[in-house]
Amino acid sequence: MNRMTIVFIALMTFWIPMNAVADLLVAEGQQYQRAPQEIAENTLVTELGKQYSTPIVVIEFFSYGCVGCFKLDPLIEAWRSKLPANVSFLRIPVEFHAEWRNLTKAYYTALNLNAFDKIHVQLFDAIHSNKLTSASDDAIREFFTNHGVDGKDFEKEFDSFNTNRKQKWAKSVTRAYRITAIPAFIVQGPQGIFVTTARAAGSQENIITVLDHLIKLELGETAEVAQVPAPDSSVPATPESSTPPKKED
Questions:
Q1: 248, part of any domain
Q2: Is position 133 within any domain?
Q3: Range of 96's domain?
Q4: Which PROSITE patterns does this entry report, sorted A to Z (predicted)?
Q5: pLDDT tens for residues 152-163?
Q6: How far is CA 193 from the centre of its chain?
């Protein structure tokens, strides 16, 4: 691992929000980072970009178990519905904790059963209002059936080859992009690969402005530095979920 990659990972983990009174300058190294060449040349990363016909792909790394992702989701849902036709958006669930594995499978099961609109917001709400206190197979099955999904369809899809393949793929892609904290966003396009978080942007609202800036940057419509409104210091930055520390040998 080269020095640039180490610096990139450190910044991903220890970004500090800028809560200035004046307008913020959105700049590389502050509200966002450029991914090092090692990441840009990773086979999984390049293959993902080629899967889409659009020049720009925005990726949200998230988990239903992440409280910051839960709080940010309404803004992201509203924002993604207005993205231009030349920008693709996808979510990739992460597994920083063992119990999140079934939440990853729940996400892909909902997509594969065309039940996303029945499950996505409702699953976030259930987990973070303590209505769903377990992510066991049985608990997830009961949740799906309570929200209009046939039990047999769920059982067939939840443990299907396709769902397990996507779960493993998501785990590999998370490693490929060196994601160590969520919610995290990748903007990937002709000008490079950029990463940002709500914490780096300074507020939940500012992450939308930073993402819009990065899309314009990819399209060559803006300079690398732009002004955005300062975050409201009375509104706390979105909490992040990070990879648990590794035990020392």
A1: no
A2: yes
A3: 3-242
A4: THIOREDOXIN_2 (PS51352)
A5: 999 999 999 999
A6: 14
